[in-house]
Structures are given as C-alpha cells and as structure tokens.
Amino acid sequence: MKKMLLLAGLLFLNLLIMAQDDFKTTPSGLKYKILEHGKGKQATAGSIVSVHYTGKFLNDTVFDSSYKRGKPIEFTLGQGQVIKGWDEGIALLHVGDKAEFLIPPELGYGNRQVGPIPANSTLKFEVELMAVKDPIVVKEYDVKGKDTITTASGLKYIIVKKPKKDAVAAKPGHKVQVHYSGYLTDGKMFDSSVKRNQPFEFPLGAGRVIKGWDEGVALMKEGEKCRFIIPYQLAYGERGYPGAIPPKATLIFDVELLKVF
C-alpha cells in the first residue's frame, strides 16, 4: 500500500512538472503563461488596473474568485496593495490578456496563514486584465493667503474650500467618507486615498483614527476641503509608525469630506 501511494505521489508530481513545462519563469521565481492575447494597453507600475481572477490551490480547489462576486478588483500596480506575485505578473500583461500564474510562497503569503490559504502555499491564479487607467496625479492643496486656525489641543487647520450653506455637518457618532493625502513636513507623501482612488470611511469620534483626525473632521461639512497640521501628540506620538511615520512627527493632511452618513 505504501509503495502504491508513493508511486501515485510521484505520478502526480511528474504530471504537475509536465503541466508546468510551458510556463515561463521570471528571476524571482514567478511562473506564468499567456492563455489568450489581448490588444490593449500594457499595465505599468503606478497604473490603476482592473483584474478578474480565480485563485486555486495546486489541486485546483478554488479559494477565491472575482468572477463569482461579479466584479473585478481594482488596485494601483506596483504599490504593494496586492501580493508580490501579482504586482510582478500583472505588469507583464496587456488589456485583454488572459494568463495563469504559479506563485511560490515567497511571492504570495509566505509563512502566514491567510483565511483558507495555509502557510507556505504555492498558489495558482487565472487572471484577465480588464482595464488599465493612467496613474492619478495628487496635487497638494494651495493654502497661500489662507488663514491658519489653531484649536485648544494644538491642532491647526486651514479651510481650502468652503462647503455649501446647507451642507451636512460631521459630528461624533456619524460615519464619514473622506479623501485624503498625508505628508511629512519635508513634503514627502506617505499615504493617499486619492492616489489609490479609494475613499476612506470611518465612524467619527470612535477612536478608529488618530486624535487629530477625530477632532479635525468633526469641524467640517460635506464638500469642504481642509488642510490639517497635526502635532505628534495628536498623531502617532513619540514612537511614530514603523516604515512610514518617524518618531514625534508633525503630519500634514489634505482632507476632503465627501459624505456624512
């Protein structure tokens, strides 16, 4: 019985290797093959791409599918918003291309278990590149000649665009939707929902965001644009945020309040 199981395992491994013979392999270890060629624009780093996909384990069990949800996913290519194998693989495609990726663990989820995906899994993705949009250029708010207001806590804010007279005010307890871009005092952008083309929603006053945001957004109305200058005590404190925010960093946010729920 053990010998039969061993032979069956070797047969499966040989079939898997044979099936991978028509794959191309990149220096990183990503395997890919183009199943159907499109004639559209090529995806490049910084582009916003729309992708339909089916994710499978090597035994062809499906663990995720955008097709089943009826909606492709959209993300900015090359920004680390998806696993490394996707950032690399999608950049090889043109709009209309259909491809298959074999993504080793180091280009996938590594030694972490994520949902139904076990640690150290090699993953198979069938993907279709639906659309490529040009990168979004984020422009800093023009605050020249505008008054800077300082609150009792030390938060500074500048009204860049005033709301309509009958605009809904944001108050603690409301859910709000905003677009924002965050900068360090040297002008370096560290985050932007505008660049991702993904507005951010959160419950105001619930401590889900930094204190300067809870205070600042509560001063706004729908349609209003403000710049917040947030001292570290109202931001990420003395430690900062690893990889993005230095210790004791004053932060600058350009914020647009899109909607109050």
Fold and architecture overview:
The protein has 261 residues and is an alpha+beta fold. The protein folds into two domains: 24-133, Chitinase A, domain 3 (Roll); 149-260, Chitinase A, domain 3. It is 15% helix and 32% strand. It contains five helices and 14 strands. Strands 1, 2, 3, 4, 5, 6 and 7 form a seven-stranded antiparallel sheet that branches. Strands 8, 9, 10, 11, 12, 13 and 14 form a seven-stranded antiparallel sheet that branches. It starts with a helix and ends with a strand.
The best one-word shape is: elongated
As for the CATH topology of the largest domain, it is Chitinase A, domain 3
Order of helices and strands: HEEEEHEHEEEEEEHEHEE
For the record, the CATH architecture of the largest domain stands as Roll
Number of domains: 2
Low-confidence stretches: 10-19
Determine Rg (CA atoms, Å).
24 Å
Summarize the biggest pleated sheet: 7 strands, antiparallel
- Amino- and carboxy-terminal Cα gap: 64 Å
- Mean pLDDT across the residues is 93
Please count the helical segments: 5
Query: Can you identify the CATH class of the largest domain?
Result: Alpha Beta
Q: Beta-strand level of the residues, as a percent range?
A: 25-35%
Content-based structural category: alpha+beta
Work out the number of β strands: 14
Percent helix? 10-25%
